[in-house]
Prior knowledge:
Helix content: 40-55%
Strand order of the largest sheet: 3-2-1-4-7-6-8-5
Structural class: alpha/beta
Order of helices and strands: HEHEHEHEEHEHEHHEHHHHH
Shape: globular
Mean pLDDT: 84
Amino acid sequence: xxxxxxxxxxxxxxxxxxxxxxxxxFSIQRRQVPLINLHEGKPADLVSVLIPAHNEADxxxxxxxxxxxxxxxxxELILINDGSQDATLSVMRRLxxxxxxxxxxxxxxxxxxxxxxxxLNQGAQIAHGKFLLCLDADCxxxxxxxxxxxxxxxxxxxxxxVGGKPIVRxxxxxxxxxxxxxxxxxxxxxxRGQAFVTGHITTVSGVVVAYRKEALADVGWWNTxxxxxxxxxxxxxxxxxxxxVYCPQSVAWILVPEHIKDLVHQRRRWARGGxxxxxxxxxxxxTGRLSEQWVLxxxxxxxxxxxxxxxxxxxxxxxxxxxxxxxxxGVILFLLLLISLVQxxxxxxxxxKSDFISWQDLLLLPLYVVxxxxxxxxxxxxxxxxxxxxxKHVGSWRSPDRGL
Length: 404
């Protein structure tokens, strides 16, 4: 039991320190050795912007307006209506009339809906661009989102995908602000750390990601059976020797769930997608490159940590119930809080300009530590259970929580 407790305590501490150090050096490297666009001065390549939508009548226009405002103008826009039951298709037709003079704009009407991966596949088949920028229909992008992504592609012909950075924009509730902290102090830090330490990231963020069309064709496009198409395609790119990089300069403003039930559903889907990818790519633990082996091993250890943490917590609560003694190790609690504080200060320093985050947001840090532990523990355990009980479950659309 002591060994299990040590693992529960030490694993997040060690991993956090690795990602913190990696994130710091990633930021230093980005400032000291800025990426140069090797395509500068040459004719611009066409980029196809794909926006799949299912019941997005209220949000679709915002993302199209932001696309129209991008500084990179050599684009075509492909709107994919995937069996929407609201006025999404009507909104798309109106947007065609509004922007057809500015850039080519097409509509793909898929009936009935078969999930995001299928919608992207349908849109990609009529895309003429060398690169595909895929966006969620409830976000909006920064004006300069494409230039840093394209520089990554031109810098290395083996880069198959470039993941952008999502930024939380709905912050009217405590839950929304807690998720802001998570994206700044956990998700962004981990991706920066992974990118520097291993040269790989666990997944691109499907809300804002660019692909080399040649690479997608090489891996067979998006997998319609995957519950999280972005995690799945990331690892299939690795399997075919393509590289996937993280580009925090390319940002998209996103809406996050502001109800606990919807947040748990989202995190459970993410966790299940991770388990699916781990199972499908288990052979890479032996045959993959060292960097891929490390990332997969971290995914395994994370799952083992969740199971161990649940067991240790249950054992601890039983001890408290039977003995009446509340045993807390102050040194351990202080260490965990200190590491969390350092992690979020680094995230705040890197993101305060792009994310419009203030130091007052860090006052929610103690609440966030409890929130993050509880939500992700529950999500991981329930996802693990659903993976073994229903292994053939496939991806599907669900109208998301748009916040308060």
